[in-house]
Each structure stands twice: as C-alpha cells, then as structure tokens.
Amino acid sequence: MTSLLGRSPTALDRISRVSADLEPPFAALDAAAFETNAHELIRRGNGLPVRVASKSVRSRAILERVLGADLTAAQGFAGLMCYSPSEAIWLARLGAQDILMGYPTVDKSALATITRDRVLSGRITLMVDDPAHLDIIRDAAGSDLVKPRICIDVDASLRIGPLHIGVRRSPLRDPGQVAEFARLAKERGFRVVGVMFYEAQVAGLPDSNIAVELMKRASVADLKLRRGEVVDAVTDVVGGLEIVNSGGTGSLEVSSADPVVTEVTAGSGLFVPTLFDRYRAFTPNPALYFALPVVRTPTPAVATTFGGGYIASGPASRSRAPSPVAMNTALGGLVRGGLKLLRNEGAGEVQTPVAVPPGSVTIGDRIWFRHAKAGEVCERFDTLHIAEEDGTVTAVPTYRGEGKNFG
User: Fold this and answer.
1) CA distance 113 to 131
2) pLDDT tens digit sequence for 94-143
3) What pTM value is reported for the model?
4) Which of 23, 28, 35, 25 is nearest to 13 (CA)?
5) Distance set, CA 13 to CA 37, 294, 403 (Å)
6) Burial level of 404, CB count in 10 A (0-12/13-18/19+)?
C-alpha cells in the first residue's frame, strides 16, 4: 500500500482531502485535473474546434465549465454533440446555439418541436443515414416544416474482406451512396450541412497489443482516403459543407490531421475513465471518482461497500466494471494498492465486496472507485462534488439531479 507521504498530490489526494465530511456514496471531480484534461484535448485537436460529447459528461454545469455559460464556445471548444433530441431541445432553450445530434432519432414529438421552431431548427442539426429518417422528420413536421439542418452519418468501420472491424452504425459507406442520399435529401427540402465519421475501432479501442496497433494504422489510412472521396462527392451535390466531423477522445490526433476534417468530438477525455488507461497517444489523468462506504467486513481480507454495481455499457466483461483504486481508512488516511473486485461476485446491485489487504479496513471507512466509462456514472448520482483548486468544494447537479432522464 502507498500513501501520500513522499510524493506529489494527485487528483484523488485532493478530492479525498476536501471531501472528508461528505457522506458516501458520492461522486467527486478534481477541478485541476479536469482543466488539464480540457487543455490536453485542445492540444491534441491540432487547432480544430473540439465539439463536446454530452453523453460523456451528463451535467449541464460541467458543460458550462467547458463551453461557457451560453454553452456555445470557449477555449478551443465549440458546440455540443447530443445523444437525445429532448436533451438537445433543453440545452438549446438554455442558450446552446450549435448542437449536432450524434445519432438518428424517431422521436416524433421532439422532431415536431425542433422542425416547427425557427430558433431550434437553426441551432440543432439532425443526424440521418436512411431515407426513412427523412420520412419521419417530414411527417413530424407536418405542414410547418422549417428546412431542417441535417448531417449524414457515414460508416467509418474498417472492412478487410468479409471482416467488419468497428461498430455497426450507418448503412452509407461508399462516396456514391452518400452522394445519392445527399441528393435525395436536398430534393426533399433538407439542408445537408455536414457529414460525420466515427472511427470507433480507433477512438474507442485501447492499444492493448501490436495487432490492435496495426489494425488502427490500417483503419486510419483507409478512412483518410475514403473520407476525402465522400466529402468531395457530397460537396458536388450540395455545395460547401459546414461540418466534417470525426474522432473521439482516443483518436483526436489522427482525425484532426486529415485536412478535410473541420472539427473533432471528445467528451470522455475530460473525466478519463478506466477504458482510456491503455492508449499510447496520451497519458491518462483521471479526474472523476466515486466513494462508497464500507458497511461490512465479512473476513479480514474483504470489505463490503454499499452500492457499486455501476456497470458500463458495451460487451459484458470485467473491463466494464468499476475499479476500486484506493481507500480512506481511520488508521492510514488515503492508501492505494491491493484492492480488487471478487471474481465470483463483481460489483453488486446493493453491495460490492472488495478484496483488501488483510486487516486494513474497518466498517465506516470508504473505498474509492473509477468508472469504466465517463458520463454513465453520472446517471447514478444527483450531484458532482468539485474539488476546486482553492481547496473548496462546489456541488453541481448532474442531469439526474436536475430531474432529466434522456435514456
């Protein structure tokens, strides 16, 4: 086990120090680490504006720290990528002027609200990749259609023979396909303002071995060529594009290096969850943690906490479970090392047993965890406690804390 003695304070050291009087469970964010991470995303974006992925934050107050009180643009960041149309409407009405939907939607009520309002339709760009999306948007708008702004999602996966490497998103892939869809949308009264390419197999996959690294290089080379061809083909149909969006926290360097890309997207890199611990492009600087209280010690080598079953989305595996990283004990202060989930129980719905160094923990102590993903953990807490650089604590609501549940 290691303590604070003899080394520089980390984000968790600072959080632990200022949150001693808070009753766990709670989530806490270190302002200094968060600020450092924000500047690092800007640096890695190579001068392109960084659009903030709201799904990876899920707190309006935190979004305002990045984009300013008007949720528009500040310090190298510009605009939001939202995951829900209801979320986009809420944020637009609060002042956000540049919102790109990251995904298509079939929410007819929300679409009607957006397309029948000139302000909202000017602030929110809808994501599409199928003629059915155009039908649904027009049906929702009725006769009050305000020429909607749309962005076309283009498949950015890597294809090697029959192999599909990446996520299953858009059915549109080849330049001709995308251009034909853009032509259809234009003829039907839509404003095609952008195209998006999300290379999940690069942005969301840790550099775990040489095979993964070689796959990423092949994917980057393939996409750079195809992305340029798609942009040229769509531009021939609709004229200039406002948005050529690409990237994620794990791929900012390679996405921003492509001269046809106009902006990159990131969000998880502000908090840095455990899924970003093994990337060669940057050094992880975790800023967000959550604390759980020890309520049992069934053996000297096991401490059971209240709560903890905050499993991240994605393929079911240990990589999606929260990770115990440190503990506050009555005897040793903040100590690290020797903590792990039990293989047969994992993180539980109401309680989570953690293997600890024998005799190190007593009832009433707390154990600190990191989540596997960024924004999802905010669905578990009403409040984020921010350890400010001046030693104070600021409490801000998450989406959940503001009574918002966008799915």
Assistant:
1) 21
2) 999 999 999 999 999 999 999 999 999 999 999 999 999 999 999 998 87
3) 0.91
4) 28
5) 17, 19, 31
6) middle
